[in-house]
Design brief:
By secondary structure, the chain is an alpha+beta fold. The chain has 15 helices and eleven strands.
Amino acid sequence: MHSAWGIDKPDVRVVIHYDLPSSLEEYYQEAGRAGRDGMPSFAVTLVSPTDKATLSRRLSESFPDKDFIRRVYNLAGVFLQVAVGDGWNRLYDFNFNIFCKRFSLPPVPTRNALDILTQAGHIEFNEDRRSAAQVYMLIDKDSIYTTKIDPEAERVLNAIFRSYTGIFADYTPVNEELLAHTLDLTPRSVYEALLRLSSAKIISFIPRKSTPWLIWTSAREDAARIPIPREVYELRRQRMAERLEAVKKFAWDDTQCRSVTILDYFGEKNATPCSRCDTCRKKNTATKPDSSAASLAATISYLTSGRGHSLDYILAQIRPELHDKAIAILREQLDSRTLVMRDGIISSTASGK
């Protein structure tokens, strides 16, 4: 997962991150969705060496260089045909996708450049403005009285007449929620009534939609001269860089307990290792005595007791990854005369007594 789930279940046992978040705050929130019932749970993070480059790219895309930001500012003016010194406090429809395509701009850093310009106060860019529905009358007033329409649609039409002027001359924005409140109807009922009026060729109806927009909060300037304040660019970039480095440390540093790494990031110093994360388990395994050699020696002792067996037979009873260790033990015991080999058969000297 990359963004927080909309799931609030107490018995989630495992949370898997297959895409690293941009901060440990995000990770902590998302991983914390596991085990809310107090039962043992796990947070698993899947990473590869290329993910480091991905995190670094997030920083450069979120904060493109200032020359690129100023270029985006200039091209926005060209795109909207706003002259230098003009545009102050004017709102423009701004199709972001067409803008990027026309000037061959990479979408992610371009969107972030527009956000930085917004933070700096030069423009205001918004990709989710709900534009109002619009109505234009297709028939004259006299014809309305001879046209058959259902009672609910007629009520909506009369309310539009009372509330909005100019609908016979041009498209006029109408507020569906206000009409619904005035007529004691649901917004859905008003919308469907407008559709019926449109189907009857009484009105032309353009439903409301989401339209990206851009406002020049100050007159357009020469792009080379626009200031990009330190608190908008350098300080915010530094904070993001620190968050990304903390994520890298958490994901790739296998010398410190993962819980200690997170708690240290949040300011809790001298935390005790959890003994449950992968780095703790690895350390615990490394500090335990290696019992595999003793177990292997016991297996060889059993196989060479009595009449003994051939080397091939002995190795066939041992896992392939342990063959080198087994041969080393056999050689050592043959050199010390604990084992002997006669006619290709290895046996214990004790068994011959």
